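Methods — Computational structure assignment.
A single polypeptide chain was analysed. Its primary sequence is given first, followed by the predicted tertiary structure written as C-alpha cells.
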Amino acid sequence: MVMPPVTAFEADRWMDSDEHPTGRGSSFKGFVNPALEAPRRFLKFASTSPGLLTIVSTILVLAILAAGGAMVYSSQSRQSQLNTLVSRTEPLSDASQELFNSLSVADSVATTSFLRKSTSDTATRDYDSAMSHAASAIVRATSGIDDIESREMELVLQIQNSLPDYVNLMSKAQTHDRLRNPVGASYLSQASTLMQDTMLPAAQELYSRTSEEVSSQQAKLSAPLWFPLSGILAAIIMLVIAQFWLAALTNRRLNMGYVAATGLMLFALVWASISAALTWHAGNQDVQGTVRPLEQLTAVRISVQQSRTQEALGLIQRDYGEDRQREFSEAMTDIDGKLEALRSQVIHPERIDTAREALRSWDESHAKMVSELKNGRYTEALAAALDTTVPDGNTGGSSSEGNSGSDEDTSDYTIVDDEMQELISSTRAELRDILVEGRTAAGRVTNLVLALTVLSALCVIGGTRPRLQEFI
C-alpha cells in the first residue's frame, strides 16, 4: 500500500498544537487568575509609599463620610419624628384638653343657666358653643388616633356614645324649666351626673394619656445622638493620627488639607454637641416646664367648673347640706394651693394673682349664699351666687320667680375661669414654640453637618494629591 506523500505544511502542523486550548476552561481561568492575583498585587501596591498614602487617604475619606452620613441620617430621622410630634401628637393632646374643657364648660353653663331666668339667649349660645367645641374636639381626637383598638379610641367612643344621652337629658331639663315644671331639675341632675361620673372621667383619662405621650416623646427625642457624635469624634482622632504619620513619611510638619479637614470635623462635632445640649435642656427643662403646668392648669380649671356646677345644683335643688359645703370648701382650698404653686411656673404670674383674688371673693359670696339659703331667703342666696343685686320688694321668691337681672355672667367664678383659660392658651403656645424650635434645630444640624462632611472629605483628597505627585 502506497502512503500519500507528506507535504511540508502537514509536517509542520505539530508546531501549531495549542498548549492552552481555547474554550470554556480557558475563559474561566481568564477570570479566576486575575482575581487570585489581586491580593498579591494589592499587597505589593500597599508596600509602596504612594500605595500606602492612597489607602490611608481612602480610609479617611470613607470614615469622614460615614460619620457625617450617620449624623445626617439620625438628624433627619429625629426631625421627622419631631414633625410628627408637632403635627399629630401635640394637636391630639390639645384636642383632648379642649374636649375635657368643653364638656365641663357645657355642664357648668347649662347648670348655671337654670339660675338665670332672663329672656336673652346668652346662656343658650354659650351652651351651644361649648357643645360645638366638644363635638369638634371629638372629631379632631378621632382623626389623630391611628390605632382603632387603642385605649384612647375606646375613651373617645365612650364620650361620643354618651354625648347624645347627655344632650337629650339636658334638652328635656331646659324644656321643663321653660314650662316651670319642677321635674326639669331632676333631668338636670341626671344629665350632670352622667357628665361628672362618665364623660368627664373619660375625657380626663384621654387628656392624661395624650399629654403623657407628648412628654415621653419629647424626652426621647431630646436625648443626645451619642452614636453619630462618637463617629465624628472617631473620624477626628483618625485625622490627627494620619497627620502625624504623614509628617513622619514626608518629613513635613503639617498637611494643610488634613488640618482643614480636622478643623471642619471638629467644628461639626462642637456644633452638633451644642445643639444636642440645647435640645436636651429644652426637653428636660422647657418642655417639662410647660407640659406639667399645662396639665395642672387644666385640672384647676376643671375643678373650678365642677365647683360651680355643684354650687348651682345645690341652689336648684334647694339642698345645701354640710357635706356639700365641706366639699366646696375643700375644693376652694385645693384650687388656691395649686394656683400658688403654679405662680412661679407660668409666664404671666399676674393672672394667677387675679384668679386667686377672685377665688377668695367667690368663696365669700358662696358663704353668704349658704347663709341666706339656710335662712330661707332664696332670692338673696341666688343674688349672692350670681353676684347680682336683689330687686326691690322681692324677697324669698322661688326659682321660677327669681331673676338675676343680668344676661352676662360677671361673677367672680367667671373671672377665675377666664384667667385659667388665658393661662392655658399662653402655656400651650409656649409649648408649641419649644417643639417647633427643636424641629428647626434638628434641620440646621442636618444641613450644616452635611456641608462640613463633604468639605472635609474634599480637603483630605486635596491634601493627599500633592504628596502623591511627589512620588511620580
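Note: Residues 20 and 26 are 7 Å apart (CA to CA).
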